[in-house]
Amino acid sequence: MRLYTLPALLGLFLLLLQMAPAAAQSTASTSTTALATSDNLLDVAVSDSSTTYLVFGGPVSLVDVGMAGNYLVKIEANAVFVRAKRKHAPPTPMLIRYGSKYWMGRLVYANRPVMQLYDFQKDGVLSINGKSVSSTGAAPENELALDKEREKKAVVEGKLSQLRKAREEHQAVAVVDNDLVLSLANVRNDKDFTYLRFKVINKTNIDYNVDFTDFQLVENAQKKFLARKKNEARRPLAPSGGRPNQVITGRSTGYLTYAIPLYAATERGYLEVTLRELNGARVLVLPVPSRVINRAATI
To answer: Which pTM value belongs to this model?
Structure first.
């Protein structure tokens, strides 16, 4: 056993006293740095009644959510769709890999999110109308932020109300699957939005509870001969209007209305509408030809 003299022990004790403050300072510095890094994360507002869209400049291959059990996440090409599973879900970090790059942010629950579409196509930096926005700055103006401008929201809801009273016009644009029929009933345009009314016929005895309603503009959708589609591009469109968790009871017919950002597609494009069930696997996908939207009457 090694023995220490009293002077040696005293010297060792003094050395430890000198090292302790430095270690504490290093720990505090590390904690402060970690806190600063956390504070610099962009908060992405999500709710349990609507979908939040994140669009990146390359194909998304990975989404890692800290508290994954509290959020629903879907990857679609270069976009990520996020929705809270329950009210007041706790904040959690989210890591996304797109192309060869990474983006990190934080999911935060909001009962009525101001923004529903986050555009990170320019080097992972939030961009609105072509202008970059600092992650620590104030939330930018957004045409989709209907809850932020009561007047605009009232106008949109008024036009959707008008559309609900219109006679059905497009019965031929329809899809049938699992004894469910999804068809386009009406479509209108104004200078900012396209207004859509869908008809859902439930021929089963089980209620169809509409959870996700996704809208994507698909371009270059024509196939080459005996080959896959070439250069197909998809652009997510965040819907506004409509009501959360709409239920089409068994053996009944219901209608769904939405407003999406106005976007003129080419003759090779179409609007893909996807309805997803809350507690089930019945998914309805309806392609709406671009000519139907481009030639729609104004409202």
So the answer is: 0.59
